[in-house]
Amino acid sequence: MKAKFGDIYQFWLGSTRIIVVSGLEDVQHIFAHRHVYDQGDIFAEKFGLVNPNGIIALKGAKYKRHASIVGPLFRGNKINIHLDTAIDCTDKLLDRWRTYNNDPTQVHLNMIEQCQQLLLAIFGYIAFDYDLQTLNDENHSSENELCRALHTFHNTAVDLMQLPTVIGRIYLLLNQKYRRSQAIINQYLQRMIDQELVENPTTRSERKRTCLIASLVTSLQQDEMLEATKSEEDRKGLSRTEVMNEMCSFLAAGYSTTSTALAWFIHLMSKYPLVQSKLKTELAEYHHQRLSIEQLNSLGYLDCVLREVLRFAPPVIGTLRTLQVDDQLPSSDFLLNKGDHVLISLYNIARDVRYWSGPIDPDQFYPERFQNEDNTIRNKAAWIVFGGGHRQ
Ligand code: HEM
Questions:
Q1: How many CB atoms lie within 10 A of CB 111?
Q2: Across residues 143-147, what is the average pLDDT?
Q3: Ligand 1, atom 20: closest residue by C-alpha
Q4: What residue ranges are annotated as transmembrane (predicted)?
């Protein structure tokens, strides 16, 4: 599309006009001006139908209240301390694959599903201190009810993006499969909260610095009815429904992105054996050792490969913002009006020769592009696979 229409073009999502922005300078301007470009109203409207109190659907004072509770837990150092958990879960999956390998009846393995199960297991432990049992052998393949329910939840949210909101509401009411899935997800969320509630409050207040569920449960409002009478600016903490909605959005947003990235990594390693062998050489130093976070951070080529996987196949291809006032984009000079919706095309930027000027075309998979010092600064700015600005 970009090759044909340039840096700015529009399309219609149902009855909504979406303006696609693909020039890096314009995109940086959008991310830098949060009061002009706030979270996309479409997210609030559509995701609001399935998960009204999840952070992605929130704006203004309510967003601030939620972000102040969940935001601090997503800093790198809070995740890094769970490296051992990630390694243990991955070992469990590898053991399963070794067993399959010796089993002549197992001729086909759905790698996307396997990656989803791994990431859900890791996510369950890290975020919720809970065993989601997605790696238990009796639960393999499509038998896992939580995987299936999340899959339906995700697909329904995608369907809703294309429907007018009123039709979307009716669609949800009539969609039995979605309603069953939502009920299954809610059962899991309730169990996780209940498990956390039986924990001793003293240990919880220590764990809340590193564990999402401990932090969310600590934030539960003592008197929901009283908080509901206050203005949004004065409200503190989260209601039980809000906690459940946040857990749901983290589960959905967290496992689908990371498992997609892992599935692409596995696919690309099979397509590029030279890259795979360079990676193995780098890792050979730590053969049969449990990696520490410092050792992991010292693996320069692995870092390049992961960056390149996320550039080449970004799990999220774009993000939306809605104009709060009229504005003009600095590079394209395009005039935007209050209420316009812009889609920042992370995918187009990741594949644009203007920003990926190394020897190899950006349509090629080439991890070494991140090793080339001359290109580092230019490429760094264009590597925005996690979005930008205040919603990153
Ligand atoms: C490879 C992994 C991931 C990628 C590429 C990715 C990418 C993105 C992108 C592009 C956005 C939109 C940001 C913006 O609008 O500027 C986003 C938002 C979000 N992501 Fe991720 N993400 C990843 C992993 C995760 C994980 C593990 C979680 C788990 C909790 C998560 C939770 C969220 C949430 C809650 C939002 C909405 C934030 C808001 O609207 O304020 N993501 N992600």
A1: 15
A2: 81
A3: 253
A4: none
Architecture of domain 1-36+273-392: Orthogonal Bundle (1.10)
Which residue type does 100 have? Answer: Y
| 300-312 helix and 240-271 helix, angle to the nearest 10 degrees | 100
Q: What is the distance in A from the centroid of ligand 1 to the CA of 191?
A: 25
**Residue 230 in tokens:** 């206050």
Domain assignments of the chain as residue spans, ordered by start: 1-36+273-392, 83-271
Question: Using a 6 Å cutoff on CB, does residue 79 contact ligand 1?
Answer: no
Tell me which of 28, 41, 386, 391 to substitute to probe ligand 1's pocket, judged by most ligand atoms within 8 Å of the beta carbon: 386
Q: What is the SS3 assignment for 37?
A: strand
Topology match between the domains 1-36+273-392 and 83-271:
yes
Q: Is 386 in the pocket of ligand 1 (CB under 6 A)?
A: yes
Mutate to test the pocket of ligand 1, among 65, 257, 341 (most ligand atoms within 8 A of CB): 257
Reported as a single tens digit per residue, the pLDDT across 155-207 is 999 999 888 999 999 999 999 999 999 999 999 999 999 999 988 888 888 88
391 CA closest ligand 1 atom index: 41
Which atom from ligand 1 is nearest to the alpha carbon of 67?
Answer: 41
Dist CA 255 CA 79 (whole Å) = 14
| DSSP character at residue 391 | G
Q: Is the CB of 258 under 6 A from ligand 1?
A: yes
Contact between residue 36 and residue 323 where contact means Cβ atoms under 8 Å apart: yes
